[in-house]
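Troubleshooting: if your tokenizer reports a length mismatch, compare against these two reference records.
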Amino acid sequence: MGIEVDKPRTTIIIQKALGAMDSQQGLFSEGVFRPEEAYIEMVKNLGKQLGKSEFASNAVFLTTALVFGDDTGKFFKRITDQERLNKYAWIFDPKEALEKSDAEIMAGCKEFFRPAGYNKNVILEWPYNLRLLGQEYGGDIGNFFNKHNGDIEKILRALTVRPRAKTSEKREKRTFTRYGPKIASLLIQWINQYNLYEFGNSNSGAVPVDFQVARVLIQTGAVQLNQPENAHQVTTIVGRILQEACSQSNLEPRRVSEALWNIGSRGCNQKNHKNCPLEQFCDRLISRRPYDASGQFDPKDTGRWEEELEFETSH
């Protein structure tokens, strides 16, 4: 497996990213972009209006499973719709939803989320997760967290069971489905960040690693690939080295996740290289197409210097 890690460079990349975020420099000049923020605040407000203290945490828990395989910004922009949320709020309430058939529940989810591709599989598991939430945990995901003493590490293990655990295995163990290492970590990050549950060890846990986070480390040489590599293997390794870096430097995983994700999303995606705090370390721009099409990270440059070359040849 041709995946090499440069730990000292990883530490430098993290420090540079956090420094720019904290000082609001470059692409952080307008603050940190949190695509989920408006949606989570919306479900929190609706929960208060409905008088259901568990509504917001349930909604965030169930919604997070659909983030995988979609553009996070576009996904939350699509579902941050107060009128639609009011209409389909019942899909997040086990007591109300389970009075309907599985087909009706899935139809409601499809209308609200309008999923495509891989995420249609999450909708298929929605009735099962709702039923488990209602039967085992009184319709409140907070009771699942309580069962594991509010310990993030125990909760992550219970959600993931093991890396790449099959749905059938999770069902046999009577745990929730569709929550792999990345989604489980992202869930904990958001539940903690938006004060939906008080964990006993809020600074622990893993750094959620998606395409945007991994691409930043690949493009800056912290993670070196000589050829296309399996995306799961890459994200697993990236997650491990980021977790080690957080532990060694006493860094909050959420902050590292946000800093790197913003650079990938608002810097690389928009070719905003000149305002990127990692510009001097970056030597390429990799494409997301192989990631979406065949589950691979291809380290080949697909236009990092394109704009500069166009400028030089036209003058």
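Reference record two:
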Amino acid sequence: MKIGFDFISDLNLSPGEVLNWDDKATSLYCIVAGNVSGDLPTIKSTLSSLCKCYQGVFYIPGSLEFSDKHSVKSRISGLKKLLHSNKNLVLLYNNVVIVESVAILGINGWSPECIDFSTLDRVVAEVNRTEDLGYLASSIERLQLHLDVKNIVVVSHAVPRNELYFGEDHKEYTTLPELVDCLILDKERKISHWIFGTQSKLVDVTIEGVHYLNNTYLKDTPYWPKRIEI
């Protein structure tokens, strides 16, 4: 039996901006791959609205949500308090969701091109990225042994591999591995999809058996969710 997920990312909503999602849902579940807004009330209203359209909403904060020098832990704590009333919303930070036989594994990933280094020190950003890489690696390894998990969908706000820029110039961490290097731990070949944000160019490509997709909101065009079926 197949299961469907809608996914969206990089809404980049201004304070008070409203996302109209009436009649747009195509699945029971929605994955949000970061950068809803830098404004907390707008994050809450947007995700609360999505929760009315879906049975479950799985959300990983992007770089925009950390744009005001909050530490990761304090910001995540604040987001949990802000969003706790939405019972069908799951904050993916350090939290794997299993829907039937599909595991949803989310990280920010800290894409350099998304980080304003005037408000966040580069060393701090690299530490955050290293921690995300460690969590991703250990989670993939652990899920290999989970008998109920047949497929893994990785969700990152960061672009997972350099090929997905398709030759465009971008900032990169030269001292750290790519997120995709963690795939070496997927011994059972459970990772079928990798959903990501950041990149404005729309991507839908399969590389070495993994389907990479994004769905950035380009505000001068109509916006709809993308759907994956597993």
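Descriptive notes for reference record two:
- Residues 4-229 form a domain with the Purple Acid Phosphatase; chain A, domain 2 fold (CATH 3.60.21.10).
- Residues 161 and 201 are 14 Å apart (CA to CA).
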